[in-house]
């Protein structure tokens, strides 16, 4: 049985499960979390994928809400951007298991086969943006689930819409309860003021669930949201899966809160629900 070799463990996040748990619990201290955001059926969310020292405090509230309100998921679809340029424009990982410090997660081979998407291992081999999300999922979701990691290098709106349709149809055919997580950081290496203004411009379109406008705004202002393709897939999937789709911000922050630098990377977590 093939198992993906972890690339980011020990750099983006700690080697040990105990240390990760400590970081997660520290991230919950003295933080007000709006649990009402998850009172409706949770379809998915957007989570940051930087090193835990920088963004765990932004990602943890999302996964805490998901874990607390969970009804049980058969499969978590993890949509992540391709930073390396390896592999296909859209690629599902070919391995049978992914490893985490909290134990292994089995790949949903059945759903993978139903998707009719390129399968390979190059896109995820040296990529951190899916791997770093998995410990959050494994820790906060207490029930067993399978994983479908989809790495996206093709960030066109048409691709996002087509992929969302394939995912929705495959999920509906299988009857599985699916959670969709889009992995993305937001504006990179701008001042806090500029970054927040750019993110607000993009978030306006996200909360309106207007993927075309979101894509237009990202390209028009050259906003460095690295996972804007995965976010568009989530938005389009949400509109198919929910009768009353909503996306709302759960938490925001930036790397300057940790390293005190003027040029910061922004992090935003959002939750997608059927309200």
TrEMBL record:
Pfam families: Memo. Belongs to the MEMO1 family. PANTHER family: PROTEIN MEMO1 (PTHR11060). NCBIfam families: AmmeMemoSam_B (TIGR04336). This is MEMO1 family protein PM10SUCC1_09500. It comes from Propionigenium maris DSM 9537. The gene is amrB.
């Amino acid at each position: 049985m093939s198992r993906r070799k972890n690339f980011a463990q020990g750099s983006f996040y700690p080697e040990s499960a105990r240390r990760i748990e400590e970081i997660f619990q520290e991230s919950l201290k003295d933080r007000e979390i709006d649990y009402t955001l998850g009172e409706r059926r949770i379809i998915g969310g957007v989570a940051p994928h930087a090193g835990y020292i920088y963004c765990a405090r932004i990602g943890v509230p999302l996964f805490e809400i998901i874990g607390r309100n969970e009804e049980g998921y058969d499969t978590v679809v993890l949509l992540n951007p391709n930073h390396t340029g390896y592999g296909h424009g859209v690629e599902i990982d070919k391995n049978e298991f992914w490893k985490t410090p909290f134990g292994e997660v089995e790949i949903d081979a059945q759903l993978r086969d139903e998707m009719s998407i390129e399968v390979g291992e190059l896109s995820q081999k040296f990529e951190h943006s899916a791997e770093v999300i998995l410990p959050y999922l494994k820790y906060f979701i207490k029930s067993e689930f399978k994983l479908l990691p989809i790495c996206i290098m093709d960030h066109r709106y048409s691709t996002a819409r087509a992929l969302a349709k394939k995912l929705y149809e495959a999920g509906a055919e299988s009857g599985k309860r699916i959670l969709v997580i889009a992995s993305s950081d937001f504006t990179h290496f701008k001042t806090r003021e500029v970054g927040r203004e750019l993110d607000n411009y993009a978030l306006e379109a996200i909360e309106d669930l207007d993927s075309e406008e979101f894509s237009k705004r990202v390209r028009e202002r050259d906003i460095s949201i690295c996972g804007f393709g995965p976010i568009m897939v989530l938005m389009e999937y949400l509109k198919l899966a929910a009768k009353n789709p909503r996306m709302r911000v759960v938490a925001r922050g930036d790397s300057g809160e940790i390293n005190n630098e003027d040029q910061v990377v922004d992090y935003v977590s959002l939750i997608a629900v059927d309200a």
